[in-house]
Amino acid sequence: MNSKDKYLVVVTGPTAIGKTAFSIGLAQYFNTEIISADSRQFYKDMRIGTAYPEPEELEAVNHHFVGNLSLDDNYNVARYEQEVLSTLEILYKKHNVVILTGGSGLYIDAICKGIDDLPDHDPDLRKSLKNELEQVGIEAFGEKLKKLDPEYFEIVDLNNPNRLLRAVEVCIQTGNTYTSLRKNTAKPRPFIIIKIGLNTERELLFERIALRVDRMMELGLLSEVRSLLPYRENNALNTVGYKELFACLDGSLCLEEAVEKIKTNTRRYAKRQLTWFKRDPDVHWFDRENFDECLKFIRGLL
Predict the structure, then answer these.
(1) Pick the CATH number of 3-115+184-301 from 3.40.225.10, 2.60.40.2550, 3.40.50.300, 3.30.750.24
(2) What's the mean pLDDT in 23-31?
C-alpha cells in the first residue's frame, strides 16, 4: 500500500453535532466507506440510546464497526485498533479515501497514534483499587484521580470505572501522571490522516442535544433500557442515557427527572469531548453547516 495516495479522513466533534450525516456526505462524494469510532455504537443492543445510524443511512454508505458486538463480548481499544487497521488494509485495495467518524477520543487516538506502551496490570493493586471504588463510589474515586492527574481528569469519561481504575493504577505504579505516559510518539501509519472537527455555537449544540434526547424517548429508549436490565452491570451500559433510566426503573428517579439528567449529563459529556479534541493541534475545525467549505479543504489536501 502506497501511503502517498491513501487517506483516512477523521470526522469528530461533540455528541449531537451531526457527524453521521456529515460523514455520509463525504463518503458519498469520495465513493468510499465509513468506519465508526463511537465505542457504544459497536453494540447491536444499544441502538436508540447511542443514536445508531438510521436504516437508510446504513444503506446509503457501507458502515463498519456499527452493531458488530453483543453485550456479552469482551472488547477493548487494543482489539479495536488491530481490527480497524486490518479493515483499512482491505478497504484501501478499493478506495484511496476512507472515513473514520465518531466521538470516542480514545478510540480515534488508537487508530491515528496507536496504543501507548503502559505498564501491565498489577493484580494486587487492581484488586485493592476495585475494592476502594466499590466502597467510596465512582465520584469520590474520580476525585482521587483528580489529585493524581488533574489534566486527565478534565477529559476522561468520569462515568467509566475501568478508565478511572486504569489511570489511577498507572499513576500509583509509576509515580508519574497517566497523561505524561500517554504522550508517546505516534506510531507510523501507512496512510495520511486528515482530521476534521465539527462544532457550532454552544447554545445551538445544547439545543440539538435536548432535541435528540426527546427524540430518543419518542423512539422508545425507556423500553430499550428495560430490555437491557439483565446486562446493567456491563460497562458499556454505564453510560449517559442508560444509567439515568436504570435509576428511573429502580424508582430512585421519576421519568421526568431522568430525562433532564440525561440532557444535563450529555451536555457535560459534550464539553469533555471538546476539551479532548481541542487539545489536538492537527484537528481542522469547521462549523457543522459548512460542508462545502470542509470538502474544498479536504480536496486541497488530497
Answers:
(1) 3.40.50.300
(2) 98
